[in-house]
Amino acid sequence: MTRGETFDMVIFGGVGDLATRKLIPALYYLNRDGQIVAGSRIIGTGRSDMEQSAFRSHAEDACKRYVRDSDLDEAALNAFLERLFYERVDADSSDDFQTLATTLDRGDPDRCRVYFLATAPQLFAGICEQLAAAGLNTAQSRVVLEKPLGTNLSSATEINTRVGAVFQEDQIFRIDHYLGKETVQNLMALRFGNALFEPLWRRTNINDVQITLAEQVGLEGRAGYYEHTGAMRDMIQNHLLQLLCIVAMEPPTATEPNAVRDEKLKVLRALKPLKGHQAIRDTVRGQYRAGAINGQAVPGYLDEDGVSPDSTTETFAVIKAHIDTWRWAGVPFFLRTGKRLAQRRAEIVINFHPVPLNIFGADLGDLPANRLVIRLQPDEGISLSVMAKQPGPAMRLKPVSLRLDFARTFKVRPLDAYERLLTEVIRGNLTLFMRNDELEAAWRWVDPILAAWQEDGDRPRGYNAGSWGPSSAVSLLARDGFGWHEEVEDGP
User: What is the rounded distance in angstroms from the CA atom of residue 107 to the CA atom of residue 6?
Assistant: First the structure.
């Protein structure tokens, strides 16, 4: 779809957590900024009856809560709310889908239709089959599937097979919101738009890579979801592996969707398998105990509402991964994620090898190595640590940071990840979305690790809320002479 065409977007789970916190605010911004043209409709659905006015009131409350006050304009909000409609749709009711078909056909039946499945993944296939039975899988339709897509390779393959039976692969948008972040886009520009870094981007120059997605929040009332998911399925199988692919992939021939996704798939297939004892040796899983976040006491995971008192669900995970290619052989990639950690931080750290010889005097010791830090949140930017001479008569060196702060440099509001991704869905651009073989390759690597954890039988290591995780996460790196970024210096 090109800009200027109308579309219908149907959000299954239209009053759920994802729609409320992310989709509705993102759509408000797109409408305010003129990216949604006249005649387009946004239809929220749910299993319960709801008056249209109540749905609009719900959306208004979501905007007032999750849109910055400075960006909330009354006229723009009212114009956005006029685009919103509500339909009761039970995923098991063919009659409800026929009613939805009647509603959609009151517009142009040939217009672009986006079906965003903000529901539990076990409903994905059934909803898509109901859409097809109602004749709603038209050539101009696209279906958006949220993560996690399945709980293992078998369930993911089933979803792919059943959805793929009624929608073509180029109509299926498997969303990973980290791929929509401005900094991830800039990582592509950094690597492939400059002559400086690509010659250095290999094992001969890079010592290790650390990818961290750290959260301070706990369950936020989502125990029913998280108890069956855990950190591995919630964050590593999708977000962290996708970031690893962007860091490690070979230069694609173009930014065309399959050119990029072909290279990401090669990385996933080159990941060294972790099974049995090796999986236990090169991973750490943890579960937070009571502690303090920003000076406020918080309960431990086992004391959260809805959590089983003997739960072994991991809220923290670290994996030492290797990519068996000529470019990356021998370079460890440390993947880390967790809840109730010391800081909210999402970053990619590239640690380069130190200089082979310190010529500035033995009293300086080993010179710190150069480090590239790509910060995804909370403040998006890039920092390169280099050695420089301190002012004065003596030759004393000190690490200094060359920093690019996107907000200060470009002085425009960066697009939220969902704003960008929703725009790409409407345009039909698949570059920032996972292909079915990518998804299955990720599960193929993750499944043996999950199996090893289950067979091992040990509980996750405890860590205090407000810390950086269990001490074994430090030991995992230290045994090979590595250290986490925050142990060495503060972030950018």
Answer: 10
Which of 124-133, 259-268, 269-278, 359-368 comes out lowest in average pLDDT? 359-368
How many other C-beta atoms lie within 10 A of the C-beta of residue 255? 11
Cβ-based neighbours of 243, under 8 Å, separated by 6 or more: 178, 184, 211, 348
pLDDT tens digits, 152-172: 999 999 999 999 999 999 999
- The phi, psi pair for 145, rounded to 5°, reads -110, 125
Is-contact 74 102, C-beta < 8 A? no
Across 290-393, the runs of DSSP E, i.e. the strands, are 291-293, 296-298, 316-321, 333-338, 345-352, 371-377, 381-389
Residues designated catalytic: 239
Say how far apart CA 218 and CA 201 lie, in whole Å: 36
Q: Which two tokens stand for residue 488?
A: 């060495």
Which uninterrupted H or E stretch holds 461?
Answer: strand 461-464
**pLDDT tens per residue across span 268-289:** 999 999 999 999 999 999 999 9
Peptide bond before residue 448 is cis, with ω within 30 degrees of 0:
no
What's the pTM? 0.91
CB-based contact 214:375 (threshold 8 Å): no
Nearest to 238 by CA among 211, 270, 206, 208: 211
DSSP state of 434: B
C-alpha span between 186 and 404 (Å, rounded): 11
- The position carrying tokens 């006029």 is 82
Q: Fill in the amino acid letter for 37.
A: V
- In whole numbers, what is the pLDDT of the chain averaged over residues? 91
When computed from its CA atoms, the radius of gyration of the chain, rounded to whole angstroms, is 24
Amino acid sitting at position 164 = G
SS (H, E, C) 50-88: CCHHHHHHHHHHHHHHHCCHHHCCHHHHHHHHCCEEEEE
Token code pair at residue 309 = 């008192």
